[in-house]
UniProtKB/TrEMBL annotation:
Residues 91-243 form the Amidase domain. Signal peptide: none annotated. One of its GO terms (cellular component) is endomembrane system. This is SFRICE_002769. It comes from Spodoptera frugiperda. Gene3D superfamilies: Amidase signature (AS) domain (3.90.1300.10). Pfam families: Amidase. Residues 211-231 are annotated as: Disordered.
Length: 243
């Protein structure tokens, strides 16, 4: 099979371009590595500077008191204790509220609360249990009497529903989001709603309506987002169920 002059010319051009392509690839690779090294050291420098700044703003949250020790138990265990009359829902909800009131001035997690309504609902649960309930009732409501909190972006009827947006700062939900409705349907009692990034878009739970939520393990650091308020509250052992 014979090769034409045109094909020979194309092959010569391709072979002559190879060193140039190899060189460009090497330069590109080198630039990437230099950038990665620069970025690594820049991150270390920023972490050092900001770490020094935020370390001075670190505030410890109060230790869990003995009367609130029940909050360290799982929601399943607490529900079983309420069901078996070993624990009153009112006592559990009150402990949850008191713990939130202790830690929230430091972590800034709660955006709206319904403490009195939650206590009233807990009292009703205790009355129901005292009156005697069939087993199938507890199967339908496995978390009967257990308090919970939800991120503010989940609509909860009557509660603020701003999503951290200034123009929505007075907006309240007229209905429950499906997830909130399901948890309530399981018998849990909503106590409060918590902070989120603006429209749930950022990695930190900070906005111009409620400000910044802090990490309870180190208040100079972020608990992340978009469920930062819930994360901070749960890590503070303040809510058995976080939504």
């Amino acid at each position: 099979m014979s090769i034409t002059n045109g094909e020979k010319k194309d092959k010569i051009e391709l072979s002559s371009n190879k060193p140039e392509k190899i060189f460009c690839g090497m330069v590109s690779n080198m630039i990437k590595h230099v950038f990665l090294i620069f970025r690594t050291y820049l991150d270390m420098f920023i972490d050092l500077v900001y770490g020094y700044f935020w370390e001075g703003k670190r505030k410890p949250i109060p230790a869990l008191e003995k009367r609130h020790a029940m909050l360290a138990e799982s929601a399943v265990t607490l529900a079983a204790k309420i069901r078996n009359k070993e624990l009153k829902s009112e006592d559990l909800v009150r402990a949850c509220i008191e713990r939130i009131q202790q830690v929230n001035p430091i972590i800034n997690a709660v955006t709206d609360e319904r403490y009195e309504d939650a206590l009233n609902e807990a009292r009703e649960v205790d009355k129901l249990i005292e009156s005697g309930l069939p087993d199938d009732y507890f199967q339908k409501k496995p978390f009967l009497g257990v308090p919970f909190t939800a991120k503010e972006s989940h609509a909860a009827r009557g509660m603020l529903h701003t999503l951290g947006v200034v123009s929505r700062r007075h907006v309240r939900a007229h209905h429950d989001a499906e997830c909130v409705s399901l948890v309530k349907g399981a018998g849990a009692i909503l106590v409060a709603v918590t902070n989120v990034p603006e429209i749930n878009k950022w990695m930190e739970s900070r906005n111009f309506v409620f400000g910044q939520t802090n990490n309870p393990h180190h208040t100079g650091r972020t608990p992340g987002g978009s469920s930062g308020g819930e994360a901070a509250l749960h890590a503070s052992i303040a809510a058995p169920i976080s939504l």
